[in-house]
Amino acid sequence: IFAFLIVTLQERQFLSNDAILGIFSHIALSLGIVVLALVGGANTDYFSLLFGDILSITRDDIIWVYAVLVVIVVLMSIFWQRLLLLTLNEELAKAEGLKHMFYQLLFMLMIALAVSVSVQIVGVLLITSLLIIPPAIARVFARTPSQMVFQSIFISIAAVIIGLSGSMYYDVATGPAIVISLGILFVLSQLIAPKNLS
């Protein structure tokens, strides 16, 4: 529902995409907390919800993660060129007759699926970091969009491993530890980035 609303508002162009995403992310977060409070009552673990708790992941959660991974990989393999064109130049995509509303909605739904299975690991407040920081790091080294995707995946995996290790060693929340490791990698990437990087 939120994915459809976001795409619809993006088409109307009353607000920037960043503003629309920011507004709906906070609405969704607040709505989710209210629903959990109504359903779970006093037993709801808000800290794990907001910051993640990978130790509470069950076998069913892992199955869901792999299922969503397969779905997203298949969809990206099929629609990669069209999604790439839409992302890089929406006007050109429209001129070529691409059903941009459909592909925008598809892209938003894939993000929603990825976010839904990531909540258990990093929490709802820190998912944005996993969506933004790895591509920002990969942009320093990647020369093509495909390279950027694969490097972002590798960076995310590395950050999760580093964050999990730090979380276990220092006995701190998993989500913040992962984001801190991403932050360190981001700073390092900027320090070694070529000065003429545009």
Question: Can you describe what's shown?
Answer:
It is a single chain. This protein has 198 residues and is mostly helical. It has a domain of 66 residues. It is built from nine helices and no strands. Helix 4 packs antiparallel against helix 6. The protein is globular, with a radius of gyration of 18 Å.
Short description:
The chain is mainly α and about 200 residues long.
Count of separate DSSP helical elements: 9
User: What's the mean pLDDT score?
Assistant: 80
Question: What is the C-alpha radius of gyration, as a whole number of Å?
Answer: 18 Å
Q: Topology as H/E string?
A: HHHHHHHHH
How would you characterize the largest beta sheet? none
What is the number of E strands? Answer: 0
User: How would the global form be characterised?
Assistant: globular
- How far do the termini sit from each other? 37 Å
Poorly predicted ranges: none
Strand content: under 5%
Structural class: mainly alpha
Helix content: over 70%
What structural keywords apply?
mainly alpha; 9 helices; 198 residues
Chart the SSEs and their pairings.
Elements: H1 2-12, H2 17-40, H3 46-51, H4 59-88, H5 90-95, H6 100-122, H7 127-141, H8 145-170, H9 174-192
